[in-house]
Design goal:
Elements lengths: L4 H14 L9 E5 L12 E3 L12 E2 L8 E5 L2 E4 L11 E5 L2 E10 L1 E9 L4 E6 L2 E6 L2 H7 L24 E9 L4 E7 L7 E9 L8 E3 L6 H22 L1
Antiparallel strand pairs: 1-11, 1-14, 2-13, 3-4, 4-7, 5-6, 6-13, 7-12, 8-11, 8-13, 9-10, 9-12
Length: about 240
């Protein structure tokens, strides 16, 4: 059977559009801690957005004397604890309905944060200078943990002051580890239509291995699609060769 070249070209375009294969400059290991955990088990270099760890005027933090300065810039607000954020149910947390960045004075390979009131609009992008290394979106985490159905331990604020409130959204501490490189900038983005991006206990470190936790695995492209794409390429190559001969 022979296929017109335009049919095969169209097939390739549709396949690549519907099922894009995302590749990144670095390989990241992403995992989450037990339900209710709100601090890192891998590093104590943390910014809690409290006085003494965060300067609201300059937007800077030293991450508990880590020797690294972090500078926050862009569209964000530091807010007192409420149903949507604030580790421990007290103090402050950071939120945005747009985009802000955290720029580090030295590169690290680990970042942890307490994701609160997680929604589909939350996104984290990691950079080394202007080079994008990796982007994390909550879709994989949400599908792995499951829906909020009244019995999911990750759903709802776990702190006593707001126990069980906002039960339709997930709360968890995430670890993100660059296994073959390092980064010096993190960009936090929220789709305004989805809500806000709330987080707390931003933690950095340079680790020798990925911290312990339950792994989040990014889904691979469907094997059937790869097979069909490969077949399409073979047919296209064969058709081109025939036209040349």
């Amino acid at each position: 059977m022979r296929f017109p070249l335009f049919v095969l070209a169209a097939f390739g375009l549709v396949a690549s559009t519907l099922f894009p294969v995302q590749s990144y400059a670095d390989t990241f290991s992403v995992n989450y801690l037990a339900a209710g955990a709100q601090t890192s088990s891998a590093s104590n270099h943390v910014n809690t957005f409290e006085s003494g760890t965060f300067n609201p005027v300059t937007g800077t933090t030293t991450f508990s004397g880590s020797g690294i300065t972090g500078t926050y810039s862009g569209s964000y607000s530091v807010m007192p604890a409420n149903v949507y954020g604030g580790a421990g149910g007290s103090g402050n947390y950071i939120a945005t309905a747009g985009t802000y960045s955290l720029t580090l004075s030295s590169a690290v390979n680990y970042f942890g944060l307490w994701f609160s009131a997680l929604d589909q609009g939350n996104q984290l992008s990691f950079y080394n200078g202007n080079t994008l290394l990796y982007t994390f979106t909550p879709a994989a985490y949400q599908s792995l943990i499951g829906t909020c159905n009244g019995s999911n331990a990750y759903c709802g604020n776990p702190n006593a002051a707001f126990q069980g409130q906002d039960s339709g959204e997930q709360f968890a501490f995430l670890n993100l580890y660059d296994s073959n490189g390092s980064f010096n900038k993190i960009v936090f983005t929220e789709s305004p239509a989805a809500g806000a991006f709330e987080s707390d206990n931003h933690t950095i470190g340079t680790l020798s291995s990925a911290p312990l936790g339950t792994a989040i695995v990014t889904p691979e492209p469907p094997s059937l699609l790869l097979a069909l794409t490969g077949i399409g390429v073979i047919f296209l190559t064969s058709a081109v060769r025939r036209s040349i001969v």
